[in-house]
Specification:
Layout (H helix, E strand, L loop, with lengths): L2 E5 L5 E5 L7 H26 L24 E2 L2 E2 L13 H21 L8 H10 L6 H17 L23 E2 L1 E14 L7 E10 L7 E6 L5 E3 L15 E2 L4 E9 L8 E10 L8 E9 L2 E24 L4 E9 L14 E5 L19 E5 L3 E9 L6 E8 L6 E7 L4 E9 L1 E2 L11
Antiparallel strand pairs: 1-2, 3-4, 5-22, 6-10, 6-14, 7-8, 7-9, 7-11, 11-12, 13-14, 14-17, 14-21, 15-16, 15-18, 18-19, 20-21
Helix pairs in contact: 2-3, 2-4
Length: 446
């Protein structure tokens, strides 16, 4: 209710409340149309999810661990909901294919704008090709074929890894028109949260988990093990030892998380598919960084993902080098704390494991450079990056803890010395903005 000031006899002033004018019929009809449009979009999303039990608006997988009650839903399509869509691998994929194929068609149109001189098949043809495929076909093969139809002409083979490395604009000037603090995906951890089909712990697991974003649509490696170097998972330690990403994952629209994991048998013929997934994560317009978890069931397992949407972030590439003393074993972690907001599940205490040698010696080269398993993280521009080391002098000695805190930059490097008592380590953080244009100058992945 607004207030007007009126003049009265004697020069005195008093405030007189007045009611807001009634809305016109046209304004009421516009509001009604907006509500109906929102309801229609929500019902359409629910309809797609109902077409197959493996496509969910809010992740609720029977038999899987539920998300925490205090986790906030994400925003997508203008709706306040968690937009995680799963392809489970056993049942029909009609609804998931419609969603994925629409994304393929959208990005196909974007590529045609870039290369107008080269003829391309209409997006409708791609849709017919996908719909004509056998619904009971292998989900990985279906996604592979859809990817090849849309992007192989521009980005190489389906198996190609991203040619864009980290630190693209650490030393070189960033183009103002494309390199900015970006919304990014932070992969904190991935674990085998449940098994079935007669599997028993421990499991020897190999295969890969990758992420594809719209920068170049190629594989950004998160986990990668060959059959000869598989990881042993136990009921007490179900987390995969992640090895990526190799560069920051830009989350401006839909990104895809793919998993192709296998349980090693006594012989290759006895190997079993543990998980085959292609999971789209729809871009969020939310301006706050937040943490969320999702669980996806496929083949013989349920995978648990702990992920973060990092708003307005820069890329940090971390290097650690021994400069005094030695350490036998230890664990190196990063924590990317952002600006705190009430009612939002924050990322302050969520650990990003850079290296955990367990009871093995910390790997380092002749120059003392420690070979971290992961070294690229995203940091909110208004937050901080904390590096923590828990190291032992010998296999039997107690752990010593050292910490360093860095303020993020848009370029250049930050330096600090991490003192763990019996040893000192120099920590270098290379900062860089991130660009959506994969054609900008890049450092090839090694």
């Amino acid at each position: 209710m607004e207030t007007v000031v009126a003049m009265v006899r004697g020069g005195r002033r008093k405030e007189k409340p007045v009611r807001q004018p009634k809305k016109t019929k046209a304004e009421l009809e516009d509001e009604k149309a907006e509500r109906e449009d929102l309801d229609r979009r929500f019902e359409e999303y629910l309809r797609l999810s109902a077409m197959a039990p493996d496509v969910e608006v809010v992740v609720k997988e029977e038999g899987a661990l539920p998300p925490s009650a205090d986790e906030e839903p994400q925003d997508c399509f203008g709706l306040d909901l968690c937009a995680i869509i799963g392809m489970k691998g056993e049942e029909k994929k009609a609804a998931a294919r419609l969603v994925l194929d629409a994304w393929l068609a959208e990005n196909n149109a974007r590529e045609r704008e870039v290369l107008k001189a080269e003829p391309m098949e209409p997006a409708a043809n791609n849709r017919r090709k996908v719909e004509e495929r056998n619904e009971d076909s292998d989900p990985e093969q279906w996604f592979r074929d859809g990817w090849a139809d849309s992007w192989s002409r521009f980005h190489g083979a389906y198996e190609d890894t991203t040619k864009l490395g980290p630190m693209r604009f650490t030393d070189d000037p960033a183009p103002e028109w494309s390199a900015l603090p970006r919304s990014t995906l932070q992969v904190f951890s991935v674990k085998v949260a449940g098994i079935r089909g007669g599997l028993r712990w421990p499991l020897d697991v190999f295969g890969n988990i990758v992420v594809r974003d719209s920068v170049d649509f190629n594989r950004n490696i998160i986990f990668n093990r060959s059959r000869d170097s598989c990881q042993t998972l136990t009921e007490e330690n179900q987390c995969l030892a992640l090895a990526g990403p190799t560069r920051g994952v830009v989350w401006c629209d839909t990104i895809i998380i793919e998993a192709n994991l296998t349980v090693k048998g006594t012989t290759e013929s006895e190997d079993k598919d543990l998980s085959v997934l292609a999971v789209p994560l729809i871009g969020s317009n939310n301006e706050d960084s937040r943490l969320f978890r999702c669980y996806e069931t496929s083949k013989l397992s349920t995978l648990g993902f702990t992920l973060g949407h990092i708003a307005g972030s820069v890329e940090a590439t971390i290097f650690v080098r021994l400069i005094n003393g030695s350490c036998f074993g230890g664990k190196f972690s990063a924590f990317a704390a952002g600006i705190r907001h009430r009612k939002v599940k924050r990322i302050h205490n969520e650990e990003i494991v850079l290296l955990d040698s367990g009871r093995e010696k910390v790997p380092n080269d002749d120059n003392g450079e420690i070979q971290l398993s992961r070294r690229v993280v995203s940091v909110e521009t208004g937050g901080v990056l904390k590096i923590k080391a828990c190291v032992r002098k010998t296999s039997e000695s107690d752990k010593m803890v050292g910490e360093l805190v860095f303020r993020p930059k848009k370029a250049e490097r930050s330096y600090g010395v991490l003192d763990a008592g019996f040893c000192k380590m120099q920590v270098t953080v290379a900062w860089s903005l991130m660009s959506l244009d994969g054609r900008c100058k890049y450092i090839a992945s090694q």
